[in-house]
Amino acid sequence: MAEVRNSKKACTVNALKMSQPIGGALAFMGLNGAMPLLHGSQGCTSFGLVLFVRHFREAIPMQTTAMSEVATVLGGLENVEQAIVNIAKRAKPEVIGICSTGVTETKGDDVDGYIKLIRDKHPELDDIAIVYVSTPDFKDAFQDGWARTVTRIVDELVETAAPEAPRTQKRINVLPGCHLTPGDLYEIRDIVESFGLEPVFLPDLSGSVDGRIPDEFTPTTLGGISVKEVATLGTSAWTIAVGEQMRAAAEALEKKAGVPFTLYDRLTGLAPNDDLIALLARLSGRPVPEKWRRQRSQLVDAMLDGHFFFGNKRIAIGASPDLLWSVSSFLTEMGCNIEAAVTTTHGPLLGQIETDEVLIGDLEDLEERAEGCDLLITHSHGRQAAERLGIPFFRMGLPMFDRLGAAHQTTVGYRGTRDLVFEIGNIFIANAHEPDTETWRQTAEVSDDTGSAFAAH
């Protein structure tokens, strides 16, 4: 059991965490025809926009209410109204997702009240869904913003199903955490569909930022789950939530529409994927396809091959709580020791990580604790620390701006876990100590007496 502590430093040095508003904005990007709108200054939106463009290498839709000092003091109704009306006129979105920022949260803008006034004044907005979520960036982190936004979408857009209403037995809701990539969602979709089931993802980043060239430009998100599909989630037979952060959204959906759920704290590793496959076999009434039996066997063999290189390796990880839990749990199963664990915000599983301490801190804290480790795992901002420490570096999480294919990195399912074993195992092999004639030499000189004894023989 780990002791979870907060860093006591006066300031953040080389930040590990990202803010709630951009976590919420990314969740809105999983809706089709969406326009995320940050209610704050232009700088808040510019930061998030640049971060997402560098990570996904795609055109990112995001707008701002452009609050000035005067507007912040007097209230943002006029700015919110102008932003919504302009977006509706120029972008013609299906949904406008509004995330608050620290500036407007400190002022205390009643955005829900603003939206009611704006709708009364502008009937042309009747066909556009407008969802507001409180995501102050002076507290919590990226994962919290994502989780709160998904829960708010469920509360606002999912229709309440009557108790006697028929359910679509083949339809399965999937609520993925922000630590899953579009590539991970593709893998989960493939697994669910192989049982004859129909997965519906909320949010669905695999449809909007998965790296494809559209036939024509659109100012809103291209792909993802539609507002109409979100409304029907209450008629699905089951919900699968991935990541502890999604528990609140799954509970909200169960409370509102009576859809039961199963939550997986991770889908990286052998046992959690066995549980997922067993659930899908039960829900579908079908036997497990040979494809997954084969991939499971490949994963077991990969773990057997790799454990020689993973055993007793010292690992330092900096990641959001659910990603930290997923990766550290699997590496512990492979025989590694988690020597340093730094995260961004509180989470219920942090105390269960097999290490002495989990620190809610920054990359400077991680660097101080990673000295002497065999591998450093975090996002791209950790590359300088790894270079200074002279240890191998494996990139995981967001942002990843100095490598191609960040959106397609896959670490879930049997195949994704197998490939993770190979990627990290190959890093260990490439940096292993290779003995040579110099390293075989004894450090201490052999005494004359010993030499004489050998000579006598």
Automatic annotation (TrEMBL):
| tRNA processing listed as a keyword | no
Q: Where is this region: Disordered?
A: 438-457
- Which Pfam families does its entry note? Oxidored_nitro (PF00148)
- GO molecular-function terms, A-Z: nitrogenase activity
List, alphabetically, the InterPro entries matched: ChlB/BchB/BchZ, Nase/OxRdtase_comp1, Nase_comp1_CS, Nase_Mo-Fe_CF
Q: Which UniProt keywords apply?
A: Nitrogen fixation
Q: What Gene3D superfamilies does the record point to?
A: 6.10.250.1090, Nitrogenase molybdenum iron protein domain (3.40.50.1980)
- Please describe what this protein does: This protein may play a role in the biosynthesis of the prosthetic group of nitrogenase (FeMo cofactor).
- In Swiss-Prot or TrEMBL terms, this protein is called Nitrogenase iron-molybdenum cofactor biosynthesis protein NifN
